[in-house]
Amino acid sequence: MPATAPASPRHAPARTDPAASRASDHARRTPPSVSPAAGLARRPERPGRDHTPLGRARSWLRPADREVLGLYLLTRVALWTTAYCTRLLFPANGDARVPEPVLTSFERWDWGHFLHIARDGYFPDEAGAGPGPGTGDNREAFFPGFPLLLRAVHTVVPDWTVAGLLISFVAGAVAVVALARIAELHLAHTHAGRRAALFLLLSPCAVFLAAGYSEALFLAFALPAWLAAQRHQWPLAALLAACATTVRVSGLFLAAALAVHFLLTVRTGRRRAALLTLPALPALLYFWYLYERTGDWMAWKHAQERGWYRHFRAPWDAWSQTWHEAFAQTQATGYAALFQADLAAMLLGLGLLALLIRRRRWPEAVYIALTLWALGTSYWYMSIARSTLLWWPLWIGLAAWSLRGRRTTAVYVCLAAPLGTVLTVTFLTGRWAG
Fold it and tell me: Is the pLDDT confidence value at 87 over 80?
């Protein structure tokens, strides 16, 4: 048998170093590597986290919140522009050659009460402690939350008016963001929150959110409290509602709504319901403080009666008296117009209450019902139109309506913008605006 011919060099298996072969196999089984320096060079740098208060706020706010805050800032610019022009065109003295300071436009009506409480206390003349403070201005009718905060801010901001406006500015921003988030929970639409905030900010009475009044501060506590309740964060909701009660008696109505919401949504762990009694504590402490100074547990109510005719009357009698003041020509035209506005606001509130009951929104219905009862059982209606700012179900309902109808927003803006401008000028010129 002939011997097998040797393989030609072209087909002979190549000789390789065993170590090199193992290295080659390892290279095929693993992805190509890069040096540490090259990896660091290609990895995108993470921006440094901003630990300033402004940086933390930006990280907490969502894009939708920033849109709402942008809208809020635009309306503040519009309102301040109106205030600047009003002092030039409608001076108190028609022959004035020098306009008043722009801050004077905001030093109206209730602001004086808040200022006096913050600066001098409820009883500046201790010898006059009795049925009312020594000055006789019935300042006990105002809850202490806003004046206490005003006094605290004044330690940093020397001007009292600037301090009050700053409180309302910050509180209003918190309120509109909270309102937008509540609307997003109820309405599955990307523009729901922005619509609700728009309707609130263009309300005919929106000037009171910018003035040194208690509405913005109340909403800054009440709306986050309601938002926390929607998320079943009951300790936080109770604490925020207690803060709201320090500002306005409406915090008790909010607490009642929270209690109803708790009973309807919580099936286990109902021992936490005791937390919802916390909002009553600030009111009880305030009444006790007045009792210690006056000997009258009802000093707050009696101050309301002396200063603002808030004696209890049957609802139909209050309606009849308000109708008489609005249309019987017993009042100056400006006051009569505000009585008419309060009548319209009462009808709006009753309609809202009926809608909430129809849709079984029992917690919100309790809040609106208690508010209407408190405002609708006085000698006559007063500040009901202004109270609509605190009716968050109204603004969410309008947002829902606008998302179903294309013309709703346009109609609302065309009606609310001129009314709001007129009421803003009325307030800024020192006339009664509700």
Answer: yes
User: What pLDDT is stored for residue 125 in this prediction?
Assistant: 73
* Terminal Cα-to-Cα distance of the chain (whole angstroms): 124
CB count within 10 Å of CB 51 equals: 8
- How much is the pLDDT for 48? 53
Query: Does pTM surpass 0.90?
Result: no
Query: Per the structure block, which two tokens stand in for 27?
Result: 């290279």
Which residue do the tokens 């309790």 mark? 366
Instruction: List the structure tokens of 186.
Output: 């109820």
| CA-wise closest residue to 122 among 133, 110, 109 | 133
Long-range residue pairs from 84-92, CB within 8 A, at least 24 positions apart, any chain: 86/424, 86/425, 86/428, 86/429, 87/428, 90/425, 90/428, 90/429, 92/429, 92/430
Question: Burial level of 33, CB count in 10 A (0-12/13-18/19+)?
Answer: exposed
Residues 18-56 pLDDT 10s: 444 444 444 444 444 433 333 334 444 445 555 555 555
Higher pLDDT, 188 or 259: 259
d(C-alpha 277, C-alpha 86), whole Å: 45
Lookup result for tokens 């918190």 = 174
For residues 313 and 336, is the Cβ–Cβ distance under 8 A?
A: no
pLDDT in tens, 2-15: 443 334 333 333 44
| Structural tokens at position 201 | 């900010």
Which among 144, 147, 149 has a CA at the least distance from the CA of 289?
Answer: 144
Q: How many CB atoms lie under 10 A from the CB of residue 29?
A: 7
**In the block, which residue shows the tokens 């009460």?**
113
Alpha-carbon distance of 322 to 25, in angstroms, equals 96
- Tell me the C-alpha distance between 64 and 237, whole Å: 23
Q: Cα dihedral sign for 109, 112, 113, 114? A: positive
